[in-house]
Amino acid sequence: MSQTVDAPEISKGYGESVFKGAIADKYLKAVGMSAADLDDYSWINDSAKADKVAKALLKWGLDAGASSFCHWFQPMAATFRHGQTGQVQLSTLEYNSDGTPTFELKGKHILFGETDGSSYPNGGMRATHTAGGYLCIDPSSPPFMRDDCIFIPACFVSYDGHALDEKTPLHRAHQAMSKETARLFKHCGFEVKGAVNNIGLEQELFFIPREAYQRRMDLQFTGRTVLGKMPARGQELCDHYMSPINTEAEVYACMKEIQEQCYKLGIPLKTRHREVAPNQYEFAPLFGSVITQTDQNLMVMQIAEEVARKHDLACLLQEKPFAGVNGSGKHNNWSISTLCGAQLLNPGDLTAKSGNPNLFPIVMAALVAGVDEYGDLMRLAIASPGNDFRLGAMEAPPSVISTYLGTQMTAYLKDFSEGNVYEYKPATSPINLGVDIMPIVHAPAEDRNRTSPFPYGGHRFEFRAVGSSQNVSLVNTVLNALTAKKFSEISDRVEAGEDAVAVAQDMLKKHFKVVYNGNGYDPAWPAKADELGITHIDSGVEAIDKFVAEKNVKMFESLGIFDAMECAARRSILLDLYVGTIEMEVGCMIDMINQHAIPSAKAAGIDTAGMAAGVSKLEAALKEMHAASDEYEAAKLARVLRLDTMVEVRKVVDDVEAICPADKWTIATYKELLFVDTGKFK
Questions:
Q1: Mind listing the pLDDT tens digit for each residue in 276-303?
Q2: Cα–Cα dist 206/400, whole Å
Q3: Which end of the chain lies in a sparser environment, N or C, as judged by fewer CB atoms within 10 Å?
Q4: Is the separation of the CB atoms in 316 and 223 below 8 Å?
Q5: CA distance 141 to 153
Q6: What are the backbone dihedrals phi and psi of residue 373, each rounded to the nearest 5 degrees, phi first?
Q7: Where is average pLDDT lowest: 134-148, 392-406, 419-433, 623-637?
Q8: For residue 59, which of 105, 108, 109 has the smallest C-alpha distance?
Q9: Measured CA distances, 246 to 254, 314, 678 (Å)
């Protein structure tokens, strides 16, 4: 019996602003095509079909009042860019020979575009005199409409074919993973055409009163507070986590409208709830293809910022906007399935569809080996500036890259590696509540380990350490790349005469040290991980430098994801982003002390010598950073400036705030910022 119930009056409008399915079918049939034609990506190579798709898009847009279009792409290091995307909106307005207006959109217009590649972060791959940047449609991600514009997801490359965006490498890595899955599975007696990576992203964010936000230069310019004394109440009682969202307050209406706008774009935001910190919330969608989910998450973040403004709120996406309470992450739930639907991380499903019970442990051996060997790349992929405040701070997984498998799978894989080959059948555990009328709860084979950066959680892994503001393209580029590489290594050895099971057993013996089922918050764990030789990189700057490590460049090149120039360019771009972020934060801190904290203290008769000395320290450290010999040295100095000098100066200012009369302090306080549901405090 089907458990679904249709409710057209409630679901009306869902997906109406995305060109796929029934919406696309209506307009494509008018030009002799169907929505099914869009699923065969070869239409982009047929100019006649491309013209028909363009005409259908144009009619769809005009019927909804959209007379413009653009290629929508993802520049690198776009953290501070609204929406984290690039676009040039072009009108479809043209003129007939008699001067009357008409509208036109051709296949060539939607397939390709050209723009300046030198004005985006490019790590030296483009210059003013070699500025060509080229856009091409991504047929796997459907066009969508907002207001009067049709957005066409696109890739962005240089004149030399180097990727200038986040999307192109993700496609390359995904393609490599798909090909290597088919290759490995063929050796294991399971013929498949390829595989798809599916993800689900849990987006954490803060909503704060806009009036208070507008009195915080630091929040407006950098997304985080560089000054601010903790109020008498924080998150001590965990009373915010999953408590009811106040239906009479601004945030509830804001979150509903965000969901409604996302629904129109076919973005199924499944959950909404409060998170641990005051004013912190979360949205999470249904699982979907890594390409479309990444695109959709960028739109979720943009919509959240725009809708918040309408409700007199500000949406904060930065990883650590407030000291003293939890920051925000974006859990990247990650799985792979074959194109025929076999779930690689679901042992029962994979065994049933492949007929080979050894395939699941072979897959797991490859992933364990990949996490161990390329843990530095996983750490690199989450090295956003804000994450330096979160990782290992008892609110996010540590900067040690390990994986949690649970006791049952750990024991099984140990058995397997020692030669005891049998089918893995995870068992559930019944939990009796001791009340006769209550049903028996069946706990899964794995507990939930929130301290692991990459735990297995029943048919999926969850990369928990991802930063909330991040475009997750690089994260999933790395995960798909390490998977492809390890699958490839097994295939190479099988083709050289070895047995796949024996190869997997060998991989587990060499790399099983990376499996850690304990408490990642245990202060003794990082030192123990160092003894075991597990990746442990506290500094985001040092992690970024791993982009040019010889083994990593070699791996990326072997799979056709990045060449050496692209690796070096992305290292440079990420270092520049780190330095630029700290430069803005220090500038805000200096201005806020000089323009607000010192005048407020003087008005209250409080000594300001300590704050003035702090400004001098900041200025000296900033000068030293600017004089660094190269971008790597500058980034290392920036990290010290941020985590040591700024923290030291902040304490001086926060201590002054603690004794300054409230009517004299001109900076919006944490009391005003953190309790949007309970009233305004001044």
A1: 999 999 999 999 999 999 999 999 999 9
A2: 27
A3: N
A4: yes
A5: 6
A6: -75, -35
A7: 392-406
A8: 105
A9: 11, 17, 9
Distance of CA 592 to the CA centre of its chain: 31
- Taking the C-alpha atoms of residue 340 and residue 1, their distance in angstroms, rounded to an integer, is 24
Say how far apart CA 524 and CA 306 lie, in whole Å: 44
Burial zone of 433 (CB within 10 Å; 0-12 exposed, 13-18 middle, 19+ buried): exposed
Q: Which of 539, 544, 633, 643 is nearest to 586 (CA)?
A: 643
Question: What phi and psi, each to the nearest 5 degrees, are found at residue 551?
Answer: -65, -35
Distance CA 211, CA 668 (A): 9
- Number of Cβ within a 10 Å radius of residue 280: 25
Q: Which residue has the higher pLDDT, 152 or 390?
A: 152
Residue with tokens 């000054």: 227
Amino acid identity of residue 327, one-letter, is G
Cα–Cα dist 376/391, whole Å: 14
- pLDDT, residue 682, reads 44
Dihedral sign computed on CA atoms, order 212, 213, 217, 218: positive
CA 392 to chain CA centroid, Å, is 19
> Tens digit of pLDDT for each residue in 447-500?
888 899 999 998 999 999 999 999 999 999 999 999 999 999 999 999 999 999
Separation in Å, CA 269 to CA 260, 288, 326, 513, 630: 9, 12, 23, 37, 43
Is the distance from CB of 112 to CB of 136 less than 8 angstroms? yes
Q: How far apart are CA 581 and CA 222, in angstroms?
A: 7
| Integer angstrom CA distances of residue 258 from 192, 301, 382, 384 | 39, 10, 26, 25
Phi and psi at residue 114, to the nearest 5°: -140, 145
Residue 534 pairs in a beta bridge with none
Contact in structure between 330 and 482 (CB atoms under 8 Å): no
Tokens representing 530?
């160092």
